[in-house]
Amino acid sequence: MDKAKTESDSTDESVPIPPMQRLLDNHFLLLFIGVVVPTVLYTLWGVMELSQIPITQ
Amino acid sequence: MSVAAETGVIGGIAAKFRTCPATGLKIDLAAEKLIKANAVVAIVFLAVGGVFGLLVALTRWPSVHLLSSDMFYLVLTAHGLDVLLVWIIFFEMAVLYFASAIILNCRLAAPRVAWLAFILMLVGAVLANVTVLQGESSVMFTSYVPLKASPNFYLSLILFAVGALLGCFVFLGTLVIAKDEKTYEGSIPLVTFGALTACIIAIFTLASGAVILIPTWLWSLGYISHIDTVMYKLVWWAMGHSSQQINMAAQVAIWYAIPAILMGAKPLSEKVSRLAFLMYIFFLQLASAHHMLVEPGLSSEWKVFNTSYAIYLAVLGSMIHGFSIPGAVEAAQRANGYTKGYFEWLRRAPWGNPAFAGMFLSLVMFGFLGGISGVVLGTEQINIMLHNTIYVPGHFHATVVAGTSLAFMALTFLVVPLIFQREIIWPRLAKWQPYLFGLGAAGISLFMMGAGTLGVARRHWDITFSDATLSFEYPPLAILMLSLNGLSGIMAAIGGGLFVVIIVASVLFGKKVDASNIVEALGPMPQKRVSEAVHKHGSASNFHLPGTYTLVAIFFLAFVVYYFVNWKYLSELWQLG
After folding, report:
1. Alpha carbons B348 and B346: distance in angstroms, whole number
2. Is residue A37 part of a domain?
3. φ, ψ for residue B457 (rounded to 5)?
4. Which CATH number applies to B6-573: 3.30.1330.90, 3.40.50.2000, 1.20.210.10, 3.40.50.720?
5. Domain annotation covers residue A32
């Protein structure tokens, strides 16, 4: 009985998918995050700091 | 039973495929050809780059000092290009196609685009080698401006990067096809998720490469008058270091794949392992910042955030994998009946199988040598002692050679029977290959890190400064370290040469593999059958893992001791009061 219930639960499409699971299964959202995070935190932040160095006269 | 190619249907679209006699998976022949082509070219460039590497090691050996200074920098440039970029990325393309089309039981998206990617990468790789060997582009792998190479040098890298980028899009397209055609249920398997992580990092890496190399190419042609040196360095390292993070994600995927195939090993918790890959996607590329730690134009906030706060989360991801993978092996071995004491599972592991031995040595050496030294280099205060010393190549030889290259070699011992459908020729010799190469690579890494700790500079032809106006002498121990590095280089070269010869001979002359001998062709394995774990979901059910807990405790102890030893060195370097 329990086994049947478990199997039924696991195939029930109405069971909401946890948000983390949805994130991990959304490959293009992961691609977006994987490109944007280092671009902002490493590249853009670094470029902003370097561009503020005064030019020698 | 012979394995005949058939025309059939995968997921509703006609494709030519064969059925793997080991796994029962449908193998798209277009994907198979591309895996073969990328793997073969990767191994050719490994051989070429490996010879260059041996010449570098023999020149750094003070009593041999093989090459002239001009030749040293030329060969060092070619070595860096061939092994850090060409061998690794070609093999990663093979891994991406394997982890998508083969593991997902799916046809490859746009095989023609994949062939275009292959041709662009091949043209780029050949052009890069020819240009460097012509002698006017000895700018080393980093090619820091204002060092100026021939325009063809930058063009070759751009072609290579564009080709690799196309390969990544083919991988993503294959994931879309597999999802649409429902060739898998639920989430993609963990190994494919690891490959997806590598692909995402690759896209950031290659895009960063394009951003910096295209203007540098125009600068070399004279269309741009000036490129800021620090700006170049910042953006270049978004490519240069992240390219090695692609390796890391790919090699971790391989660490999960090999025990899954050979012994049915499942991760301790599949969810946690996915979370660890997610930490790579978020944070791993930020490690590039440790190359900028001594640049005066960047703030401490930028340096500390990128190299400490963020990268420690990626390190946490690595430590999760470093616990989960030996734990998975232990759980599988205990399920196979090796339950005595703490370490029977490890003693009775298939150490005679070059795929398993290479994978496990790669895991251990990457963690103990590459991982710990990476954290040390990423700590702003300690980095000042080691920055631009030969410690840095020591670190990345632990990660890229002892870690990634050994893992890729290990996988190749399975790719030959599964994809090339050939038995490994000379299995006894193959059994020794991971040990020779692995110990040689570990020696290279350890002795370079030792010499770097004593202050020996990297990228230097002559550490004795024999023709310098102001003389300087390193401690005799540094000379010893570089000599031992030379000996280790010879050992690694023998191991690497053995790998190339065995694989080429196996592909050309190995006995054909079919259903009757496929299991034997994969080498010794505990279960005498190929497990489905690599393309299924699930976690290990056994958490009685005393051996793994002991290994992890040893790792943490080594980590803490070595970390604080370096702080002690720093306190002695800058004495206060």
Report:
1. 5
2. yes
3. -75, 150
4. 1.20.210.10
5. yes
**Interfacial B residues in 292-311 facing A (CB < 8 Å):** 292, 297-299, 302, 305-306, 310
What are the DSSP calls for B41-84, one per residue?
Answer: HHHHHHHHHHHHHHHHHHHHSTTT--S-HHHHHHHHHHHIIIII
Q: What is the mean pLDDT of each run of 10 residues along chain B (577 residues)?
A: 51 71 86 96 97 96 94 97 95 96 93 97 98 95 94 97 96 96 91 96 94 96 95 95 92 96 91 96 92 92 88 91 96 92 95 97 96 92 92 96 97 95 95 97 97 92 84 91 97 97 96 90 80 76 90 97 94 74
What are the structural domain ranges in chain B? 6-573
Q: Is B228 on the interface with A (CB under 8 A)?
A: yes
Token pair of B212 as six digits: 């910096």
Angle in degrees, CA B164, B170, B173, rounded to 5: 145
Q: Enter the ipTM.
A: 0.91
Question: How many domains does chain A contain in total?
Answer: 1
Q: What does the block give as tokens for B117?
A: 């990617």
Query: Looking at the complex, does the CB of residue B207 fall below 8 Å from at least one CB of chain A?
Result: yes
The alpha carbon torsion through B54, B60, B61, B67 (nearest 10 deg) reads: 70
Q: Is B187 on the interface with A (CB under 8 A)?
A: yes
**Rounded to whole angstroms, how far apart are CA atoms B264 and B527?**
8
Given B203, B274, B275, which is nearest A31 (Cβ)?
B203
A8: in domain: no
Residue of B nearest to A32 (CA): B200
- Indicate the Cα dihedral angle B121, B123, B129, B132, nearest 10°: -110
The DSSP bridge partners found for residue B26 are B19
- Report the chain A residue with the minimal C-alpha distance to residue B297: A50
Q: Does A15 touch chain B (CB under 8 A)?
A: no
Q: Is A44 part of any domain? A: yes
What order of strands is seen across the sheet that includes strand B13-19?
A: B6-10, B13-19, B26-28
Buried b (16+ CB within 10 A) or exposed e, B24-36: ebbbbbbbbbbbb
CA distances from B446 to B163, B488, B537, B552 (A): 35, 10, 38, 21
Q: Which domain holds residue A44?
A: 28-52
What DSSP assignment string belongs to B269-315? -HHHHHHHHHHHHHHGGGGGGGGGTT-TTS-HHHHHIIIIIIHHHHH
Helix, strand, coil in percent for chain A, rounding step 5: 75, 0, 25
Contacts of A17 in chain B (CB under 8 A): none
CB B366 within 8 A of CB B533: no
